[in-house]
Amino acid sequence: MRKRLSCLLMTAFLIGVAMTSMARDGYEEVAVIVNGSEIYSWELALLLPQILSETAAQGLDPKGDVLIRSVLERAIDSRLLAQEAVRRGIEPNTARINEKMAKMAEGTGGRADLEAELIKSGITYSQLLSTVRQADLVQTLVETEVAANLVTPEEISAYYNENLARFKNQDKIHTRHILFVVKPGDDPARKQTAREKAVAAHARAVAGEDFAALAIELSDGPNASKGGDLGFTARGQMVEAFDEAVWALEPGEISDVVESDLGYHVIKVEEISIGSTVPLDEARLVVEDLLHQQRIGGVISGLVAELMKTADIREPEL
Question: Is 182 a member of any domain?
């Protein structure tokens, strides 16, 4: 049903719902009807920034039908959950609602400024308040469900032990290098000259000359004045050829001449820092919050799935 609705309601969603210049009348159109309760296009418009923010945080950039479907489904889910909250006799948290509205007003310079900004988008203060009230009903419903099934210490320990790799700090390696730069487009003779310099530098380094002094004398790199010191880096931070070479060395060892996209390197490993594992006591709050968020997601999904079984979701009559 949802896929069919999202396609049929593309027009109802006004296609350009994100455009604040949209006429006010367009926002008053009914997008979908859930158990006899109408969801208007202005409600979808208010949801749009939230959906875009969430998807951006996930590295996604939905557009067209995908974005429309996401917003429409979120609106339907929220209405179903709010209706269930009312059915259970749950009351909205007035103090929390007032606090949220006050913060939004403060963020725009006051209530008058907030109302002015909303009007530009064809939305009224009372409409915004109604969406905040609905969101609060949903929040209270979910909190009630989650409170009956809190994350236990045993679950925290189990997750930690099953995912130890996530709590291990990365190994890091401290290196210096002598770089002979080769730029894209350099002719073969220039490249050969750079390689010969690298081979000569390597010979002096393995013969026992001070590596940092050699870097100061010979390197083209931007850190030459610091003895070629690159500090500590984790696996994957440097260009691939460099990375592969240094992690094959032990502290104090010097690499063969390494060719990368930057040119030719001679590299010395100063030390390797083995990443430690964050102890459970330090990771406990992070794990608890992660499991709590997973539980919230599960509660919402479960409630919506159950409510959808008997939901009456209709397109508006044209």
Answer: yes
